[in-house]
Amino acid sequence: DAAIAEAAQAAGLNPVIVANKAYETLEAETATVVPWYRASWYDASADSRHARSFWSETLDLLQSRAATPDDIVLIHTVSIAEFTEIVGFYESLNWGELAKLPAVFVILRRDPAEYPVSLLEDLKTKLRRVYKTADLPRRLRLCTDTEQLSQAWGDALGRPFTTLPIPFRHELVDGLERRREPKAPLQIVYLGDARNEKGYAHFPGMVQALWKDYVQPGRVEVTLQSNYNMPGGEAGIPQARLKLQRYPHGVTLLTEPMTPDAYYALLAKADIVVLPYDPQCYGRRSSGVLNEAL
Fold first, then answer.
1. What are the distances in angstroms from CA 140 to CA 86, 93, 134, 160?
2. Contact indicator for 245, 204 with CB cutoff of 8 Å
3. What is the DSSP letter of 193?
4. Which among 2, 63, 53 has a CA at the least distance from the CA of 32?
5. pTM higher than 0.70, yes or no?
């Protein structure tokens, strides 16, 4: 969010970051931050009622801030249920109502192969009706953040998708110095929350394989970002984290969300960044961590 806000500000715009009401570490240097949404992305994925509340709360926000057709709304992460609600809203609009709304850019970051074909066909039919409205292609823009995803979603929904760049705060990395003392332990680092699709469950096996010859004698240190992405963590993740916590030394688990400064400092000290992502989930998707590590 901060990277996008900085880019918007550099372009002469006045960015506003709309956050979840429970989000506490709000950065205010680059944009106005408005705590607004009640449900998380995971809530919306699990319960369609939250998906409906997301879009209705968005419309309430636009009204409260007197948004105009000259404004831009960027929705950078949505569940498929939330996206369906958005499409349904536009399906019900006439041209006069549409002309009063800001331009909306929706980024789909997951793979269409994750969803039932029947759901995608229903969305395709709705979008065909939606885009018959004059000026709609300019007012509701469909996007992804990789060329492969744009092709896949375009094929699935029968609409062209725009590929947007992956946000990256270069200034937080470019100024960091990488200092490694002679004979210091090799630093293996994982960045990202503890999720199954990111391969977190593989780490107990990885550490066990490295323990005798590398970690135990101090040749390697392993640091794993290990905060849950949802209350209690996904299935199997707490058990994996518990196994990792049993090592007496050489394995550090970061169980709370990191500040940007702490995140990039850890990235800068890494010799190896491990990304054991599930290829079925990430084959066409982007990884911000990979982009930053490179």
1. 10, 12, 11, 12
2. no
3. -
4. 2
5. yes
Give, to the nearest 10 degrees, the angle between helix 48-64 and helix 80-91.
60
**Six token digits for residue 81:** 């249920």
The CA distance from 199 to 205, in Å, is 11
Instruction: Name the residue among 83, 79, 287, 276 with its Cα closest to residue 167.
Output: 287
Find out whether 61 and 19 touch, Cβ atoms under 8 Å.
no
Whether 274 contacts 191, CB under 8 Å: no
Written as six digits, the tokens of 229 are 């992405």
In this structure, are residues 130 and 140 in contact, taking their beta carbons and an 8 Å threshold? yes
Task: Report CA-CA distances (Å) from 98 to 89, 91, 101, 134, 260.
Answer: 10, 10, 5, 9, 38
Rounded Cα gap, residues 76 and 7, in angstroms: 15
Task: Tell the residue number behind the tokens 């492969």, with chain if given.
Answer: 148
Find all residues with CB under 8 Å of 17, minimum gap 6, and list them.
1, 2, 5, 26, 27, 31, 32, 33, 34
pLDDT band at 150 (very low <50, low <70, confident <90, very high): very high
Residue 23 clears pLDDT 90, i.e. is over it: no
Closest CA to 58 of 26, 27, 89, 99: 89
